[in-house]
Design brief:
The chain is an alpha+beta fold. It folds into two domains: about 30 residues; about 150 residues, Domain of unknown function DUF1541 (SH3 type barrels, Roll). Helix content is about 20%, strand content about 35%. It is built from two helices and eight strands, in the order ααββββββββ. Strands 1, 2, 3, 4, 5, 6, 7 and 8 form an eight-stranded antiparallel beta sheet that branches. The longest helix has 28 residues. The chain is globular and about 40 Å long. It starts with a helix and ends with a strand. About 20% of the residues have low confidence.
């Protein structure tokens, strides 16, 4: 009799653990995302899918980019849905400082964290030196609704080649033209 009680108790414990793990998994699959996931979704929900192709004044073309204008590359970044794995055509290649930023959109939407990427020439009063992590700046880019004129904090800084690209999303979405920006480390040879 003691053996049966012990066995029943063990089975109840396993059943309880199974139910808890199922509930936990279910809540994560149905929108229990962290704030940064929601901020990122909002960020790309308002993205200007097709840019003008114009570049900021003072931006210098890369002299010897790894990916030449007109060549193709695979995008390894996931800034937006369908981007990762998409085949891109290089439209422009430029050497500059590139920043990830956090900012409050001028439209009153939720804060956008770790937006990738804004380049040095898209920041108001950018001088000849790079900004530093933690610097407060005013953005003069319109990649997203509410970005132009927004106050931002620099989250990361790097000097690299940035690329403007055209691509068709890997998930079959509508073609994106003149996307700004993808950095060199986010591309690979086709």
């Amino acid at each position: 009799m003691k053996k049966n009680k012990w066995l029943i108790g063990l089975l109840i414990t396993f059943a309880f653990i199974f139910l808890l793990s199922a509930c936990s998994s279910s809540s994560n699959d149905h929108g229990n995302h962290s704030k940064s996931d929601n901020e990122t979704k909002m960020d790309h929900e308002h993205m200007n899918m097709n840019g003008s192709g114009e570049v900021p004044e003072g931006l210098k073309e890369a002299e010897n980019p790894t990916y030449k204008v007109g060549s193709q590359a695979i995008i390894n970044a996931d800034h937006m849905e369908g981007m990762k794995g998409a085949e891109a055509t290089i439209v422009g290649a430029y050497d500059t400082w590139v920043y990830s930023i956090s900012y409050e959109p001028t439209t009153g939407e939720e804060k956008v964290s770790n937006h990738k990427w804004v380049i040095h020439e898209e920041i108001k009063n950018a001088g000849t030196e790079s900004f530093k992590v933690g610097d407060k700046v005013t953005v003069e880019a319109d990649h997203m609704e509410g970005m132009d004129g927004a106050e931002a904090t620099i989250d990361s800084v790097q000097r690299t080649t940035v690329y403007m690209v055209n691509y068709t999303p890997a998930d079959g979405g509508e073609k994106v033209t003149n996307h700004k920006w993808v950095i060199e480390s986010e591309l690979s040879t086709k």
